[in-house]
Amino acid sequence: MKRTTKANLPRRNALRVVAAAGAALAGATLGAPVRGEEAPRCVLTPAQTEGPYFVDERLERTDLRSDPADRTVQPGALLTLALRVFAVDGAACAPLAGAIVDIWHCNAAGIYSDVDDMRLATRGAKFLRGYQVTSTDGRVRFTTIYPGAYPGRAVHIHFKVRTRTSQFTSQLYFDDALTDRVHVNPPYTGGKRTRNAQDGLYRAGGRMLELDVVRATQGYAAAYDVGVRRA
Questions:
Q1: Distance between CA 145 and CA 65 in Å, rounded?
Q2: Which residues contact 195 (CB under 8 A, 6 or more apart)?
Q3: Rounded distance between C-alpha atoms, residue 154 and residue 214, angstroms
Q4: pTM
Q5: 24 in helix, strand or coil?
Q6: How far apart are CA 37 and CA 52, in angstroms?
Q7: Is the pLDDT of residue 45 over 70?
Q8: What one-character DSSP code corresponds to residue 208?
Q9: How many Å apart are CA 124 and CA 114, to the nearest integer?
Q10: Span 120-157, pLDDT tens digits
Q11: Which phi and psi (to 5°) does residue 200 adopt?
Q12: Domains present along the chain, CATH in parentheses
């Protein structure tokens, strides 16, 4: 469970882990995150760099774990990620429908697909990449795995929101203590990794981008509200 001090951050959309939520999680399909229908905080999400490994695969899917080329599935702790995207205009905001939301991240061994990685060339592979189109209420949902440790970076997930007239890119982070617990188990390497406070990108707005993660029936579940500037 997250420390109560973090729940008070102005941008955070904490998942309220109470007894009722726990009961709901116990019966949720694939451990879908429990989120109330509270109004979003109409605050812009901090932008962060795209990084070197974005590939515009145009691969529309919910489950990112498999490689469509050979159907192999990436091992790791199951993570269900639900995002709500809002267009922010001053102090008001509204759900952003019809936007393309891409996410991409490394596997349990810290490897990205479809790139010339410094440790392994993975051109042609497409695991842990994909996009969804936001619904009328701005929602998308992905099934993936908890990311591994990429050298020199805190554990993170990249995401991009694209409309016909604009795009927004940022990253999502995890609590170090939770990652410690996840990464001691196979197939994670469990070795030395960069912690949040050691990551220069995390220090530039990462606390506002840190996911609140709860245990689910299978694996973990997280949710986050993304506020982008109205075009």
A1: 7
A2: 154, 176
A3: 19
A4: 0.84
A5: helix
A6: 36
A7: yes
A8: G
A9: 5
A10: 889 999 999 999 999 999 999 999 999 999 999 999 99
A11: -60, -35
A12: 4-229 (2.60.130.10)
Q: Is the pLDDT of residue 24 over 50?
A: no
Token pair 């949720």 is at which residue? 28
> Given the structure tokens 């205009």, which residue do they identify?
89
Q: Please give the Cα distance from 209 to 140 (Å, whole number).
A: 17
Alpha-carbon gap, residue 127 to 144, rounded angstroms = 10
Go through the chain and tell me how many residues it has. Answer: 231
Pairing of strands 78-89, 220-229: parallel
Give the separation between CA 66 and CA 22, rounded to whole angstroms.
Answer: 29
**Which secondary-structure segment (H or E) carries 183?**
helix 176-183
| Sign of the four-CA dihedral 107, 206, 216, 24 | negative
What is the pLDDT confidence band of residue 41, given thresholds at 50, 70 and 90? confident
Report pLDDT digits (tens) over 170-189: 999 999 999 999 999 999 98
In 3D space, the residue among 114, 193, 205 whose CA is nearest the CA of residue 147 turns out to be 193
Tokens of 226: 């993304």
d(CA 192, CA 174): 16
Structure tokens that stand for 192 in this block: 């030395």
